[in-house]
Amino acid sequence: MPLLATLPTPGSIVAEERIDSIDAERWTLSNGITVIARQTDFKNDEVLFDAFSPGGHSLVADEDHVSALHAAALVSGSGVGLHDSVTLDKLLAGKRVSVSPYISALFEGLSGSSSPEDLETLFQLITLYVTEPRLDPAYYSTYEARLRTTAETRSTQPDAVLYDTANRVLAQHHFRRRTLTLDLVDELSMERAEAVYADRFADMGDATFVFVGAFDWDDLRSLSETYLASLPTSGRVEQYRNLEIDPPSGIEEHVVRIGIEPRSQTILVYAGDTEWSREEALTVQVAGEMLQIRLRERLREELGGTYSVNVGAGLGSLPDHEYQVFVIFGSDPDRVEELGAEVAAEIEWLRAGGEQRYLDTAKELLRSSREEQLRENGFWLGQIQAAIQRGEAFSEINGFDARLDALTLEEVAAAARRYLLDDQHVRVVLFPEEE
User: Fold this and answer.
1) pLDDT at residue 1 tops 80
2) Residues 297-318: what's their mean pLDDT?
3) What CA–CA distance (Å, rounded) separates 219 from 115?
4) Residues 321/351, Cβ–Cβ less than 8 Å
5) pTM
6) Which CATH superfamily is domain 13-228 in?
7) Pairwise CA distance, residues 414 & 409, whole Å
8) What is the mean pLDDT of residues 42-50?
9) Which of 46, 94, 286, 424 is the 20 to 30 Å CA partner of 170?
10) What confidence score (pLDDT) does residue 234 get?
């Protein structure tokens, strides 16, 4: 049995453009869809893709939000077209191909991978998930029951309660960042999930498909004309909504008491508004690397106060420009304050100027990591996608080494002074329940 009962009526490629800066091609299809393709020789058996269209669940009403969150997963688990999930698995047996639809906050789309030999199957699955999605009532029941079990147990798991608390505080208890509870699961509706999915994928005209990997150009061209240029479009051009989910201003300190294990976990987050640029994003990332190295030396190796300390630092550009730097470490409950003071001291060290050897180490780590990434299809897929979504020139992807080389210790310290503010952060600490 074929995946598709009948092949679609092909469209065509109406415009072509070479993108020299990243050695790629851009095609405009007759129905308005854009294709960006970069052929690589990193792996001879891998083609990756991601397709995205602006909107996502930011455009659904509040009462449909929970259904929208789970819509793509429900469709994914139900099979597609005329095939239930069991039949679909049989049809795909022996093939190296996977396609998953998604609806995120700002975009809806599909992602997946295949071997070059199974590329047509990948395109057929794309067509089916857009034009003939299915939502199996039996799968819905199983999925909902599993979600209920997760919701029931979540409130008894110390780490889950800690992270849920931190995320709620960071989102200022925004309606769309509520924790998974049984009440929340009650808002899930099979009919609404189906309707949201149908609406999100009703018009693919403003979608961009990015392909990276070992495809054959002639194959990709003909498959794009047959399957992508025939997807439904009606001229609907959308933009996602900024729902103003912003971190709180000032200081937020919270304690979570749950569990009997004598351990603590501290989450410290600095977050707020900024102006995004690749230079600034890299500066913040390097500041985070330097802080990670220092805290590991001090908290774990010198003081023996923790098994692991993690630092993450970055800038987000969508839907608005924000920074976030977090420090997370575990410890004995009676050492929380002591180690917290050490973290504050190391942050002050960074703000005061840090040391060149830590900057050199951080740069070396990022440089070698980048060298590896440049030989990975997934890296190029993510970079091309991010550049399009931010409206950047693709040539920006190539400027990493120059930006890293130019970065000075004073610039990193200045960024630390801008973002690691004593009067603007969230701290949430897990303690065991009191006896």
Assistant:
1) no
2) 94
3) 13
4) no
5) 0.95
6) Metalloenzyme, LuxS/M16 peptidase-like (3.30.830.10)
7) 9
8) 97
9) 286
10) 87
